[in-house]
Amino acid sequence: MTKVLILSGGSQGIGFACAKRFMAEGYQIVNLSRRPIDLDGVTQLCVDMQKRDWLDNCIDAITAVAAGADQVVLLHNAARHDSDTVKNLSAENFADVLQVNLVAPQQLNNLLIPLMKPGSAILYMGSTLSEKAVSGCASYIASKHGVVGLMRATTQDLVGLGIHTACICPGFTDTAMLRGNIGDDPAVMAAITGMVSYGRLIDPSEIVETLYFCSQNPVINGSVLHANLGQIES
Q: What InterPro entries would the database entry show (predicted)?
């Protein structure tokens, strides 16, 4: 049985950990990102999803892999996270964020769904902010709310095809993106971990195990799964 994981943003963090986990289960890995993934055996397609025509130079490579696979897991992992508010978010910047976080996933859906056989899966990477909001990241919040809607639409539109989907919403995960946003201030880290019932950041491998489970189990079709160690709500 030929199994393929096609993921976006696999060069670091959760995406990189996913590539290793699925490879260990016998999957061929295709990574779509600006930077190459540091993992032997991965098919690396260097792309910039912020450009509307990013697919043009890799359509043949992607379809060649997917068309011959018995199972395709499509993982929409790449994301852009800006610091902005509804008071200063320009239309241009908002469109750029939506291109990466929502439009690019749908471009991949449009290309790959006709090639995906029963037993395949489409997984969306959401966020704790897919269903709530904080100040200072308006475009990210709006786009991640949209990811939940796109996943739910996927569920309804693929009825009868044997392709299942889910949106996995990590909490505070120990990734380069998170640390880049919060910096090295111990007080900020303490404040963040203080909002988690377990008092720590999530290891990327914990999210990976959730993603792998979802990829193999169609019973979760249409589900939004919050994987956050139990956030403390004020």
A: SDR_fam (IPR002347)
